[in-house]
Amino acid sequence: MDCEKIRDRFSSLWEKELTPFEEKMVKEHLASCPECQSEFEQFEKTMRWLHSVGEVEVPDGFLPGVYKKMEDRKRIRMAEKSGKKWLNFPLPLKLPVQAVAMVAIVFLVLYLTKMMPQSPAPLSVGKKSEQALAHKELERGRETLKIPAEASRPKDVEEAKAPLPEEKKIEPTPPQVRVETRRAEAPSPKTEVLALKQIESKEAAKAAASSPEPGKIEKELRAKKKSVVAAKPPQEIVLKISDREKAISQIQELVKQFGGEMLTTKGYGFLASLPKDSFSDFEKELQGVGSGGKTDKGIMREQSTGSLRALHEVKKEAFEGESGEPAKSVTDKEGRIVVRILLIQE
Amino acid sequence: MRTSPRIEREVIESCKAGDEKAFAEIVVHSQKKVFNIAYRMLGNLEEAKDLAQEVFISVFDSIKDLREDVKFDAWLTQITLNHCRNRWKYLKRRQYFNSDSLDDPVETEDGDMPRAVCDPSDNPETLYEKKMIHQLIQGGLQKLKEDQRELLVLRDLQGFSYEEMSELLGLPEGTVKSKLHRARVDLKRVLERAAH
Fold this sequence. Notes:
A: alpha+beta; four-stranded mixed sheet; 18 helices; B: Rna Polymerase Sigma Factor, Chain: A; 8 helices; 3% strand; globular
């Protein structure tokens, strides 16, 4: 048996666990090998020293220390439990509460964002959202202003697209009722222009948002109507004549007779100013002047009735108007009626 | 063998029921063993005291789960060894043992003592020599691997049987014996190196 195998059996030899045969072999080797003998002596001393180490006494206050630590642990656990009480709630209870809290937060955020005054954001996204908001408001305004359609749809669309000043010029002598209707149906051009201006400034956007209010829009429409009536061209009466000179002298006489005056006399067209009270009588007399009055009567009637109705409305509004001053000025302006008389040679 | 008489079954059952007196009895009965294992494993009295107290708190918390077929002493030793392993790792991470060498003063039950380099062949008859021997052994144990230290503490200092050690460490008896022999030889080398 070599030295390595002998040294591996030192523990067993020291603990007397070797079989008698093994013990005899190891002891014989140790007796013949001084190196292994020395190694075993060192090993034996180490084991003796190791076994000579006595037990250490437990420090005083060991058990009270255990109790104290237990108390400390209890207190920490209680604090943790109270701190994490919410975590210990059952999930079916926690989930609805969390969901409600989430919804409440969302509503609060939305409410606050709507309530808070928005500073003019340099971001294009902000502008876009504002524009979208203004367009929405416009759409809402259009819906509230829709009147049962008298005119065809495409015309409305065209008028809605056309800018307002041109609109006045394009239709010099439309039947007044239709004009009014169209105005009522298509306030969008003005409103859109207004809205676009309003987008630039925040206050204007607010005004755009409030514009679809029915009361305000009605007022706007009334003001528009007044301006249209005030700016509309003089009423036209078409007369078919056979003798121009004669007809002119007759018309001049009639005008003078009814307290009016001739404003212009050029070619076959006249402009005459007449007091509104005597206008209807003047109209009747004038029919007698024209030789083909029957043929143009319809047109004349239509035109005159249209103008009269418009005039009547203007008057009515002037009297019903809330503020007295603007109403007065309208009646003063409309105290006389300007008539254009066109002569057609037969 | 230096094992204390086994604790009575009734005391353990009372402790399971939450009886604090029974728990105190268990502590008083087992504290020396737990404290000594901790001290030999960690080499520090304060750390050993703290760890032993933690062990008994764990015992109080988990004794209700102790099965009847499990021996209380083996269960307690297992808890102690687990605590020692965790504490050893914790202290090692904080480089607690870095400055530890056999030439450093070692904390003993009689206070810090300077390491005296001595030959193991010297006759350790006097008390002073005995203290020095204890100091050397403690220092030598700290130099060994943790599992080697466990084997030496359990077998040579606490007197556990191979069977008990086999159960505690989850190793076959033959493996325990061979590992223990290797640990003893390593300790001898450590002591020799310290002497020269």
